[in-house]
C-alpha cells in the first residue's frame, strides 16, 4: 500500500516549536513527510499531497481544487481555519482538523493572570514600583480576591471552560452567557447560565472567551459596556472583532472600569492608539498561546489527528460544515 504524502507548510521556526524529535518520528512512521519550499506551496490548486499541515503564515487555499488533486486532510496546527480553508473545500469532502484545544490552557492562564492583576491593581502598583514610588504603590487601597467574586464568562469555548475551571478552583461564583451551552451542561460545569445583558450588569469581572461569528461580531456595543458596574474589570483574550473598541476606550477614559487586553483591531497596535496611554489598562501583544506547553500540545494534537485519519478512526477536532461558522 502506498504511503500517504504529507506536506508540512510551516516555517522552520514553527516546526521546531511544534514538534520534538519523537513527534516527528511518529509523522515519519505514518506518512512520507516533505516540506514546502521557502516560497510556500506554488500551486495550491494542484496540491500533490494527501495531507497538508498548516500553521500561522501558511498560504490560504483556493475555493476549489483541480480535478485529480490528492488532498484529503488539512491538519491546522493553530485555531480558526476560516481564513485558510474555504468552506467550499469542506463541502467538497476535504477533511479538516485544527489544534485550538492545545492553546486553551495557556490562554486561560493568561486570562486568570489578567483577572488577578486587575482585581489587585497590580499593573498600576508595578508602574509605581519601577519608578521608585513606594508610597504611591501603597496608595491604591484594598484589592479584591477571586474567591467570592461573581465572574461572568462570555462564551463556553475551550478556553472559556479552562478559565472557568481555574477561577472556580479559586472560589469564584461563575455565570456564563453562551447560546450554544445547554442548561444541563452548565449545571454539570457548576455554573449558572444567564443572558448576556444580565451577566454584564451583575458581574464585577467579565471575561470574554467567545469566537468571532455572525452573531458575536460587534456584540459588545457601547450600550452593553454601559451596563458594567462601576469598578468592573474586563478581560479580552479572545478576539477584538467582538467588541466596539471605541466604546471600550470611552469607558476606560471615564475611569469607571479597567481592562486587560491581548487582542486588538489592528496588530501591532498603532503608535498613536489611545490604549497606550490609558492608566487603567493592561496590554500584551497577542501572546495568550505563546508558551512552550501550548506549542508542543498543538503539535501533539496534529500528529494524533493524522494518526487517527490514517488508521480510519474518527477525528477528535474535526471542522465540518455544521461547526465551521462557529469555531474560533
> What is the 3D form?
elongated
**What portion of the residues fall into strands of 2 or more residues?**
5-15%
The Rg value, from CA coordinates, equals 22 Å
Number of helices: 12
* Mean pLDDT metric: 94
First-to-last CA distance? 37 Å
Largest beta-sheet characterization: 7 strands, parallel
Low-confidence stretches: 38-42
Please give the share of residues in helix.
Answer: 25-40%
* Arrangement of strands in the largest sheet: 8-7-6-9-10-11-12
Question: How is this structure best summarized?
Answer:
The protein has twelve helices and 13 strands.
Characterization of this structure:
With 328 residues, the protein is an alpha/beta fold. 34% of the residues lie in helices and 15% in strands. Strands 8-7-6-9-10-11-12 form a 7-stranded parallel beta sheet, with helices on both faces. Helix 2 (21-30) packs parallel to helix 12 (292-311) and helix 4 crosses helix 7 (158-169). The longest helix has 20 residues, at 292-311. It is elongated and about 70 Å long. The two termini are 37 Å apart. Residues 38-42 have low confidence and may be disordered.
Any descriptors?
alpha/beta, 6-stranded mixed β-sheet, 15% strand, 34% helix, 7-stranded parallel β-sheet, 328 residues
Amino acid at each position: 500500500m502506498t504511503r500517504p504524502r504529507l506536506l508540512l507548510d510551516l516555517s522552520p521556526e514553527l516546526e521546531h516549536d511544534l514538534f520534538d524529535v519523537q513527534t516527528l518520528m511518529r509523522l515519519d512512521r505514518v506518512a512520507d513527510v516533505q516540506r514546502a519550499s521557502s516560497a510556500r506551496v506554488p500551486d495550491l490548486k494542484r496540491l500533490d499531497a494527501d495531507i497538508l499541515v498548516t500553521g500561522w503564515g501558511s498560504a490560504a487555499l483556493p475555493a476549489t481544487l483541480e480535478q485529480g488533486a490528492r488532498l484529503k486532510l488539512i491538519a491546522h496546527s493553530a485555531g480558526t481555519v476560516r481564513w485558510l480553508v474555504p468552506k467550499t473545500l469542506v463541502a467538497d469532502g476535504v477533511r479538516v482538523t485544527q489544534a485550538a484545544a492545545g492553546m486553551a490552557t495557556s490562554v486561560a492562564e493568561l486570562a486568570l493572570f489578567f483577572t488577578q492583576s486587575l482585581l489587585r491593581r497590580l499593573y498600576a502598583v508595578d508602574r509605581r514600583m519601577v519608578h521608585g514610588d513606594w508610597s504611591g504603590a501603597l496608595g491604591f487601597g484594598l484589592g479584591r480576591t477571586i474567591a467570592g467574586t461573581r465572574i461572568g464568562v462570555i462564551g463556553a469555548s475551550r478556553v472559556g471552560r479552562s478559565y472557568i475551571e481555574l477561577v472556580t478552583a479559586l472560589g469564584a461564583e461563575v455565570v456564563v452567557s453562551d447560546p450554544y451551552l445547554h442548561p444541563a451542561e452548565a449545571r454539570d460545569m457548576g455554573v449558572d447560565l444567564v443572558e448576556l445583558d444580565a451577566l454584564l450588569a451583575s458581574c464585577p469581572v467579565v471575561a470574554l472567551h467567545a469566537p468571532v461569528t455572525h452573531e458575536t461580531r460587534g456584540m459588545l456595543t457601547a450600550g452593553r459596556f454601559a451596563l458594567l458596574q462601576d469598578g468592573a474589570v474586563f478581560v479580552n483574550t479572545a478576539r477584538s472583532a467582538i467588541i466596539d473598541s471605541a466604546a471600550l476606550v470611552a469607558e476606560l477614559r471615564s475611569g469607571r472600569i479597567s481592562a486587560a487586553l491581548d487582542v486588538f483591531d489592528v496588530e501591532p497596535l498603532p503608535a498613536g492608539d489611545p490604549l497606550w496611554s490609558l492608566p487603567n489598562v493592561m496590554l500584551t501583544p497577542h501572546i495568550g498561546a505563546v508558551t512552550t506547553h501550548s506549542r508542543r500540545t498543538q503539535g501533539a494534537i496534529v500528529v494524533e489527528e493524522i494518526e487517527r485519519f490514517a488508521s480510519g478512526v474518527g477525528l477528535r477536532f474535526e471542522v465540518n460544515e455544521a461547526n465551521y461558522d462557529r469555531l474560533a
